[in-house]
Amino acid sequence: MLLKDKVVLITGGSRGIGAAVAVEMAKQGADVAINSNSGGAAAAEVIAAVEAHGRRCISVEGDVALPETATAFVNAAVEAFGRVDVFVSNAGICPFHAFLDMPAETLKRTMEVNLHGAYFMTQAAANQMVKQGNGGAIVAISSISALVGGEFQTHYTPTKAGVHSLMQSCAIALGRHGIRCNSVLPGTILTDINRDDLSDPAKREYMEGRIPLGRLGQPEDIGGAVAFLASDMAAYVTGAALLVDGGAFVNLQ
Q1: Which of 6, 59, 160, 183 is catalytic?
Q2: Which of 37, 71, 76, 208 is 20 to 30 A from 128, comparing alpha carbons?
Q3: What is the CATH number of the domain that holds 87?
Q4: Among candidates 86, 173, 102, 92, which has minimal Cα distance to 138?
Q5: What is the pLDDT of residues 98-140, one digit of tens each?
Q6: Catalytic pick from 143, 145, 183, 231?
Q7: Domain assignment of residue 250, yes or no
């Protein structure tokens, strides 16, 4: 129970990595608030999964690209649970596209959701933590793509590098308030973002062959890393980046 009776907020929490993190937070004893752009049945499933572990959960709909969504999300969590102890910035999109004819709107939307959304949400959560005066933990889901390139991800990789950089700078800005800021860099995790891209058996086999542990990641593989960084076990860890990629990044030969 690393997070017993803590309150954890998660963006993009209705599916994929966000949903898996929400359930892991509940397993570790936390109450959970999730934000998603659509909510609906997917959010209801996450709420049910959290409640199955004896914890409370709320869902707040809203577009993370809008600053007012961040304020509304934090306010709703405080109204429901009284405070914010941990914030997990997870919401992100990656509409794969070639570089030379990248639509301006695709680039703009990816930047707004992945980077601007992380900024606004982190800022709102941090302000609440400062107001409470008891410190806190912020964990951003960056990506191995912050460290490597991607032919069809020229709009996506800069946002993930930016998310990691945001955590480094926030670690400095918020350290005096006892707020720790770290990033998790997942490798290839099977989610809705890349399911179509990995539907080709040959490509999937190639990707699995590059990973020393011999398999693609599952959303649940990220939950433990987030729980550690959010917990008091990481009390002296801030400004760090934790690769969770099955060894893919170091397998250069």
Answers
A1: 160
A2: 37
A3: 3.40.50.720
A4: 86
A5: 999 999 999 999 999 999 999 999 999 999 999 999 999 999 9
A6: 143
A7: no
